[in-house]
Every structure is written in C-alpha cells, then in structure tokens.
C-alpha cells in the first residue's frame, strides 16, 4: 500500500488493516483492464475506485513485479 501511495494513488494508509487495499484511481475500469493484460488483477468498484487483494500465494518477487506494473 505504501508503494502505491508514493506513486500517487489515493489510499488512506490508516484504513489498511488486512490484505485488502482500496484506492482512488482515475479511469478505474480502463486501468484495471490494462493491468490485467500485464498479469496484475484488481477489481474496479466504481469509475474511480479499485480494490487490490494480496493473496498469501504472492511472494516478494511477484509483489515487486505488481508494484512495477502499477507504478
């Protein structure tokens, strides 16, 4: 979540208590579709809100790759 905040995503870090992160993102639907073509899945909740879930199967290398795609 911190890496996404530093990249400009609208995330309230104090609300992040689990493996689920909600972010304010312009053009959420289009961006989620773009990320998926690069192997990163997320869910567009509204036109400006995205939900990310970090599953326990994701290792550090995979996380770094996802951060690279998202930033």
Offer a quick outline of the entry.
The chain has 71 residues and is α+β, with helices and mostly antiparallel strands. It is built from three helices and three strands.
General description of the model:
- The chain is built from 3 helices and 3 strands.
- The chain has helices at residues 2-6, 28-37, 60-70, and strands spanning 20-24, 43-46, 49-53.
- The chain has a 3-stranded antiparallel sheet with strand order 1-3-2.
- A hairpin with a 2-residue loop joins β2 and β3 (49-53).
- The longest helix is centred in the C-terminal third of the chain and has 11 residues, at 60-70.
- The N and C termini lie close together (12 Å).
Average pLDDT value? 91
N-to-C order of helices and strands: HEHEEH
N-to-C CA distance: 12 Å
How would you write the strand order of the largest sheet?
Answer: 1-3-2
**Uncertain regions spanning at least 5 consecutive residues:** none
Task: Report Rg.
Answer: 11 Å
Number of helices: 3
- The structure class reads alpha+beta
Classify the helix fraction into a percent range: 25-40%
> How many β strands by DSSP?
3
Strand content: 15-25%
Main beta sheet: 3 strands, antiparallel
The geometry reads as: globular
């Amino acid at each position: 979540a911190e890496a996404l905040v530093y990249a400009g995503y609208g995330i309230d870090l104090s609300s992040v208590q689990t493996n689920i992160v909600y972010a304010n993102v312009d053009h959420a639907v289009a961006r989620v579709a773009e990320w998926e073509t690069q192997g990163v899945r997320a869910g567009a909740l509204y036109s400006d809100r995205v939900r990310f879930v970090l599953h326990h199967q994701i290792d550090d290398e995979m996380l770094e790759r996802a951060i690279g795609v998202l930033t």
